[in-house]
Structures are given as structure tokens and as C-alpha cells.
Write a structure and sequence with these properties.
Ubiquitin Conjugating Enzyme, alpha+beta, single chain, 145 residues, 2 helices, 23% strand, globular
Length: 145
């Protein structure tokens, strides 16, 4: 996990860090993402015990609720291809679909997860401006043939 933290720092993602909670012997990564419009979003990545072979979950914890173009909570959509979201956290946080579980492998570093989150947030802001689905701005990973 120290190497993951160092990769974030070395690749210019200094707004994010990896944290260890000794009481629970658990890890997470978090930080504030700032979009090109200057808006801030809090991201929280739960690193599972099976990491790096198990895909981490990535949530937007603030603003909460995260609203869509029509003013409805995105977390209410649950799993949504149109919005590139997965099952929300029990706290109501939106979970970003950053990588298909079937395509996840141990060679993917947390920096790539946060990079995809940044792309998702830029697409989200386009959604707010236009009302168009995130899927119109962010492509879906194609299944291997």
C-alpha cells in the first residue's frame, strides 16, 4: 500500500492518499478531486482485503446527495449504465463504475482508478450542463472477444 501511495504522489495525484486503519487492519484511499470548472468532490476508495486482485469500490462522498440534471439523487438510480454507476453505499454515496469486475487485474494501480474518477466527474459536469447521460461522454469498456 505504501507503493500505491507513492505512485499517486509520483504521478501528480497528490490530492489523494492511501491510509491504513490499524484498529481494523484496513486500508482506503481518499482525497478531494477538483474539476476543470473548479468544483470539488470528495472521493473515497474502499480497498478490499483481496486487493490487488480484487477490484476496489470508489465512492463520491461529497456533495451528498449527488444530484442529476433533474435534481434527483443519483444514488437512487442504483446500478445505471447511463450514468456509469454501481450499487450505492449504505450511506447514500454514489459508486462510480471505474472498471468492470471481469476486466480487473492485479496490475491496475489506484492511480488509474482515480484517473477514471476524474474523467467520470468531468462527464458528470457535462451531464449537469446538458442533461445528457454520462454514457454519452464516457465510453464503456468493451468485452474481450
Amino acid at each position: 500500500m505504501a507503493a500505491e501511495h507513492q505512485i499517486l504522489q509520483n504521478e501528480g495525484f497528490t490530492q489523494f492518499g492511501v491510509y491504513h486503519y490499524a484498529t481494523y487492519d484496513s486500508y482506503n484511499a481518499s482525497g478531494t478531486a477538483t474539476t476543470s470548472s473548479g468544483r470539488n468532490y470528495q472521493l473515497f476508495c474502499i480497498i478490499p482485503p483481496g486487493y490487488p486482485t480484487e477490484r476496489p469500490s470508489l465512492y463520491i462522498t461529497d456533495p451528498k446527495p449527488l444530484l442529476n440534471y433533474h435534481g434527483a439523487a443519483i444514488s437512487g438510480l442504483g446500478v445505471s449504465h447511463a450514468m456509469h454507476t454501481l450499487e450505492p453505499h449504505s450511506a447514500g454515496w454514489v459508486q462510480i463504475c471505474h472498471w468492470r469486475s471481469a476486466r480487473w487485474h492485479a496490475g491496475i494501480v489506484l492511480q488509474k482508478v482515480f484517473l477514471k474518477a476524474m474523467l467520470w466527474l468531468e462527464a458528470y459536469e457535462q451531464h449537469l450542463a446538458t442533461g445528457r447521460d454520462l454514457a454519452d461522454f464516457v465510453g464503456t469498456m468493451q468485452e474481450a472477444a
